Structure formats: C-alpha cells, structure tokens
Amino acid sequence: MVKIERERDRRVGGIVPSKSGSTQNMAANIKVVVRVRPLNEKELEQNSRIVVDVVDDKMLVFDPKEEMRPFFYQGVQQPNKNFLKRANKELKFVFDNVCSQSATNRDVFETTTKDMLSALMEGYNCSVFVYGATGAGKTFTMIGNSEHPGITYLTMEHLFYIINSYEKDREFDIGVSYIEVYNENVYDLLKPSNTPLQLREDSKYGVMVAGLTLNNIKTARELLNMLENGNKNRTQHPTDANAESSRSHAVFQVYVKMRYKTSSQLRLVKLSMIDLAGSERASATGCVGERFKEGANINKSLLSLGNCINKLADGSSYIPYRDSKLTRLLKDSLGGNCKTVMIANVSPAHISYEDTYNTLKYAARANKIQLSIKKNIVDGDMRLSQYVKINEELKKKVKELEAKLSLSSVKQVVREPDTTKEKVRLEWRRRVAEAEASHGAAQAGVLALLGRQRVLALRRRLRARARDHAARLAHRSSCDVLDQMCSEDIPRQERAAENYMKQSAHLDSKVLVAWNNWDEHRQKLDRLCSQALSECPELSDFIEKIRMQSELREVKARDDMRYKLLCIENEEINTFTEYMSEMPSMLKKLYLTLKGYDKAPPALTAEYLEIMKKAKQAKGISWSDTEIEGDSHFKFISNLNLDKPSTTLEYNYPNHDDVNGTIDVVTDSEDLTDVENREPVRLCATKRKGTPIKLANNETIIINDSFESLDTTRNLNSAKKVKREYGIAPEVENFIDPKDLNSTFVLGGKVEPAHKPVKPEKVEPVKRGLIDRTNTIQRTVTFNDKAKIVKPVVGRALPFRRPPTAGFGSSLARDGTPLQRNIQAVRTRDRVQAHPYARPAALQHRK
Ligand SMILES: Nc1ncnc2c1ncn2[C@@H]1O[C@H](COP(=O)(O)OP(=O)(O)OP(=O)(O)O)[C@@H](O)[C@H]1O
C-alpha cells in the first residue's frame, strides 16, 4: 500500500502519467475510460478495504495484494500466514484511460468527450455512456452538480465554443432531447408525460424515438437549465446503496445540423450521452416491491447490454439489440456508425467488490468491440453531394500522394541535382548543336567558294596551255591561214583573261567575306565547346563528335572539289589527246623527209628517239630511274584548306604555260650553247624554243618547237625502224625537194654572231637519194594544217639573233610597228600580277 499511496501522490488532476503506454487501438474500438470514485462517508466509516489500485492513467490493479499484517496464534506471531483471508485476485486492467479517485469531472471530460467533439464536427455520430453499479458515480460523472458540473454540461459548453469558432463558414442548428427508459418504457424528460414513446428504426438516421420533440438551445446555460428540469422529471428513488439512486436510464441527445455557407453541404450529427441506471444487487439495495421490479428491469436491460457487448466483442454476426429498449437505443452507440466512449464507474470500496469486478470485466469486454463509423453528410443538392464525394476521394488521393511524396522526398533531394545537371547538360548540347549548325552552314559556304576559285584557276591554266599549244604550232609559220587564226585568237584570249580577272576578283571578295563569317562561327563554336567541357566534362564525346563532323564536312568538300577538278582535267586531256593524235604521223613524215635529205642531225634523231621513249612511257612503260614529279600547280589548286585567304597566294606556274610572255621565243633565246660536249638528248629536251644547237659539222639548227609536250601514241614499230636506220644511209624513196620543204627546222650553216653578216650558203652536191627531183616536186606534203597544201621551202641557216622582222611570230606587225598583242600581253601580265593567283614577280620576270 505504501507503493500505491506513493503513486497517488504523483498524480496531477487525477490523471496519472502513462507508464504502461497505449495498448489498444483507440480509433477503431470503443474507447473505455474507467473512473474510480473516492470512498464515500459510509465506506470511510467502515474502513473499507481498497480493492482498486490505480497504477497510472491507463492501468489499474483490481484486488491488489494487501500489506502483510502480523498474524498471531496463541500469542505467537505466525509469519505471512492468514488462513482466514481469501487470496487477492490482483488483476491488472488496462484501458484507454483510468481516472483515479482524485479526478474531477473536468478531468474526465478532457479524456473522454472533448476529443470526441472534434469527430462530431467532422460529421461523425458520437456517443458516451456511463456504466457501473448503483452508487458508483455515474450520475455524478454525467450530470454532476452545480459545483461539479458533469461531462454533459462541460461537453455542451465546449461544443458551443467550437460552434462559435466555426460560425464563419458554417451555420449551426442544435436540438436536444432528454429521455429516460424506465421499466422498458421511454419517456421524454423535457416534456413529461405518462405516455411512453415508441422506438422506430430508420435506415438512414438509425433508431429514432417517435414523437420526441427537439428543443433548440443557443447556449450551454440553457442546456444546464434544461438538464436540471429534466433530471427533476427523472425517476429517482433512494436505495440502501444510493440515496439518490437513478432508477432509469437517461439518454441525452444533441442533434447538430451544420450547413456550409460556401456550399449546400449539410452535416447532421448526433451526440448521445447516456446515464445508465446502476446494476444492483437486491441484497445491496434492499429493494422490495416496486423498487425490486425496477431493479429487475434495470438488470434485465443491463444484462441485455452485457450480452450485446459480449457478442460485439466476440465478433458475432447477430447482436441481440432488440432484447431491451436500452440496447435498441444504444444500437448505434455500440455497434453502429458512432464513435463511442464508455465510462465505467467503479467504487474502490471492498463492499462493492463484486460490482466493481463485474464492471471492470464489462469494460474490458467493451474495449474489444470494433466499430465501423462513417461521416453523416447529407446534401440537398445531388450534384453537390457528388462533388462532395469526388472531393472526398480527391482529398484522399491527395493525402496518399502527399504521403508518397514525403516518403520520396529524400530520394528527390538526391535526384534533384541529377535532374538539374541533366538540364544543364541538355542546354549545353542544344547550344553547341545550334552553334555547330551555323558553323557548318558557314563552312559549307566558304568551302564552296574556295572550290569555285580553284576550278576557275584550273580552267585558266588549261586555257593558257591550249593557247600555248596553238601559238607553238603557228610559230614562225608563214601560213596565212595559221597567222590569221592566231591573230583572231589572241583578242579572244585576252578577253578570256580579263573575264578571268573579273571573276577572280569577285570570288576573292566573296571568299574573304565568307571566310570571316565562318571564322566567327568557328571561334564561337570553340568557345562554347570549351565552356561546355569545363561545366560538363561528360560532353567530351559529344564535342568530339561535333568536331569530327566539321572535319568530315571539310574532307567531303575537298573530295568533291577534287573530283570536279579531275573531271575538268580529264575532259581536257581527252581533247588534248585527240589533238595530239595527229602529231606522230606528221612528225614521222617530217623526220623521214629530213632523213631522206640526209639533213637529220644526230641531236634531232636523239630527240626523236626520246619522244618515242616518252611515247612508250605514255603506254604505261616507265623507267626505273624516272622520277615521278607531281604537278605543283595542280597540287596547289587541288589543295583545299581553310586557311585565311591571302592576296599574295603563290604557286609555281609552269614555264611553258607562260601565255603572257612573248611568243617570239627566238628573240628571247639564250646565248648559243655549245652542245658538242653535252648529252644531246637531254640538251634537246631542255633546250627548246629557239635554242640554237651547234652540230658537229658546224651547222646550227634552231629548234623552234618543243616536242616535250607531245602526248602521242606513237607507233613502236616506227620507232624501231628509225633506230635501225639510225646511222645508216637511208633508202629514201619518197624524197622531197628541199626547196619545197617548209619546215620548222631551219637548216643553218655555221653559227655566226648576230652582227656578222650571214655567209652565202655553200651549195652542197645533191645526194643520190634526191636525184629525181622531178618526182619530188610533183609531190606535195600535207601538214597538220587541215589539208592545206603548202610548198616546202628550204631556208638558209640563220644567225642566232635575227633582227626583228615583220610577220607572225615577230613583235612587229607587217608594217613594222610593234604588235598590239604584245602590249596587251604585258597589260594582262600586270593585271595577273596583282591577282592572288598570279605568279611571283621573280617568276614573272624569269624568261
Ligand atoms: N467522483 C466523485 N466525487 C465525489 N463524490 C462522488 C463522486 N462520484 C459519486 N459521488 C457521490 O456518490 C454518490 C452516488 O453517486 P451517483 O448518484 O452519481 O451514483 P450513481 O452511479 O448514479 O447511482 P445510481 O445508479 O443509483 O444512480 C453521490 O452522492 C455522489 O455525490
């Protein structure tokens, strides 16, 4: 007991701090609160033993062990033996709440109905009933007195307080009823009548009392007055157990109608507060007669209540609510749509041992009852009710999603940086891709222009070479037709050169603009790539791909351009090949003619053989010691790069393509070179265009045409034949009178300085092979001048530097004035010099 007393001292306001913790599911079960009243005067007088020890606010011990008292037998104390005393049950009960003897009605209110009101305002029916033996303090708990108002008043007071706080958005309508069930009859305490009321059951509103009137109240004070009046009407009779024993079950009901101002949603809820009559033992109450009958009915109804509680606790499908009016009234509260609190009142006195024990057992059973409750929402507008339903479902979903969201919040925090980084990465990819697209367009533009530049350069080169060939053919020709042809051709060539100049200048400006534009895009792309790589190193592959795309585009443009250049070159080669295909036969005839006159010098023969050798190479036969030298010009124009365009681009233009130079190569020839001690073939191959060759017999010949560029399919057998004849006096059958020979070879005598007069030609005896001149004279030689028959003329040996004479191949016109074409040629050269593709000045002046 010392321990128990010590525990009591620690209680504050009757609520003992929890030590055992929550053990029941409060939400789903009937909430059970046990209140132990203090000993009354009678019990104190009897020094009644305390059979209920409240351990904390949730647990009590029924019939605890008593403090050991010394037991004496024959004057001798017997240790721990009391054979006359019954053994203590020492049963531990755990409830939702246990209110000790010192607990006030407010304390009970705080632990029972106060929280219930929140559920009531949400639309749940609520019910609280007090159960216990007679005189256990049920009425005191429920109704109380003026000094200690019961939980009914306190609940209603708090309800009005809540209503006031909700008045902004809701309209409330409150009606109360107060009835009693006495001897299995229902009476209206607020409207006293001897006629009992009938119970009705409604599927929607549950059990209703037919004919019951609701009294509207506005304040808790009205309720208090009403309760006082109603209690006056309640059947009470003094018994041995309780001077003011209630002989009926009192049911106080509050109907709350809530209408939302923002909608027509209506909530109709019911709060039932039931003060049961006390179970009693006839022996304890001492009732006889009418009181005994009352007690029997009370017990009957309470027995039915006990049965229903047992069935509900066992989960039975059939609950005998209809066994009594009380159970019918409490049907909703016990197993229906209601939040229910059961307050079990017990007396701690030993005299109420059995009643207390039974009450605790009932309370424990009731604690197991599972309830299924729902909100009572009634809407006048069907659509609104649907909306309400939808709203409820949506709210439920929102809660579920919020729960999921809260669960995944940690993951989100972790993933958030990834998402942000991914966004940054995508943004960089987008920006780099856009910049690359712009850069690609600019690059394609500048590459196309550079390609056009090179195509133009190639066409110019081919045009110049073609003109050079034509000029060589016409050189020193006395043929009027050729002279006329070249005279007409020169202005056309000059016009072409001017056009080329214009096109080149136009292209140059466009290339420069395009290149600058491309360079800006390239720099921007480089900057973006660098930034992207610094912020997102994982974009390295993407950046590398972008750069490779750019390089690929450049390579493809270069390939396209080279293919185009090759096509142009091929076309030109085909044309040239066709043109040159006529040359071998003519050369052969020419050579054989000279041979026939025994005028073919060894150097000429050697050159002729060299040409044959080249012809063999043209057929695919190459010598091992022959170095393959590339065409630097073609290399230049086919090398497409994106370096900044320069206005002083240089390339090695082929010397023999010097179309801007004077055509009269004779006057530009170098000094006479003694070729005796030199290898004749090489000399002849390199010394061309007017290079005088001194022969062994002191004759000098001037080769005015180059055979170097002959690209012919010379007959190999012819070459072999020439070889066989080399050094052997040929048997010339088709000889030609030298007088009729119009050769490009000038058969000269001994080489003399230019200022020296030309010695008269020594008449050589006519060789045998040329005896029959008549036959020769009658014959004509057809040159490659489109079937024009010209008379061969045998000229004399000329001095190396001839004075300028009028005619084709000379810088003088027929009337002796300088040719305009030479002036034009110089002008063109000057213009070309200013062009980026023009040769360097050093080359220009090298002649
Ligand atoms: N917690 C309490 N504190 C002080 N007095 C109490 C307490 N509980 C009950 N009493 C007193 O005990 C007496 C009996 O109480 P009450 O009438 O409430 O019992 P009851 O359970 O309602 O009995 P019955 O079933 O016969 O009506 C009353 O005089 C009441 O004042």
CATH architecture of the domain at 2-375: 3-Layer(aba) Sandwich
Name of the CATH first level of the domain at 2-375: Alpha Beta
Mean pLDDT over all positions: 67
Any idea what the radius of gyration is? 67 Å
* Span of the ends, CA to CA: 139 Å
Which structural class do the helices and strands define?
A: alpha+beta
CATH superfamily of the domain at 2-375: Kinesin motor domain
Shape: rod-shaped
Biggest sheet: strands, sense, closure?
10 strands, mixed
Small molecules bound: adenosine-5'-triphosphate
Percent of residues in β-strands: 5-15%
User: Helix amount, in percent?
Assistant: 40-55%
Q: What fold name goes in the CATH topology slot of the domain at 2-375?
A: Kinesin
Instruction: Please give the oligomerization state of what you see.
Output: single chain
Low-confidence stretches: 1-27, 379-384, 410-416, 619-628, 647-691, 702-720, 726-759, 763-811, 819-847
Number of DSSP helical runs: 24
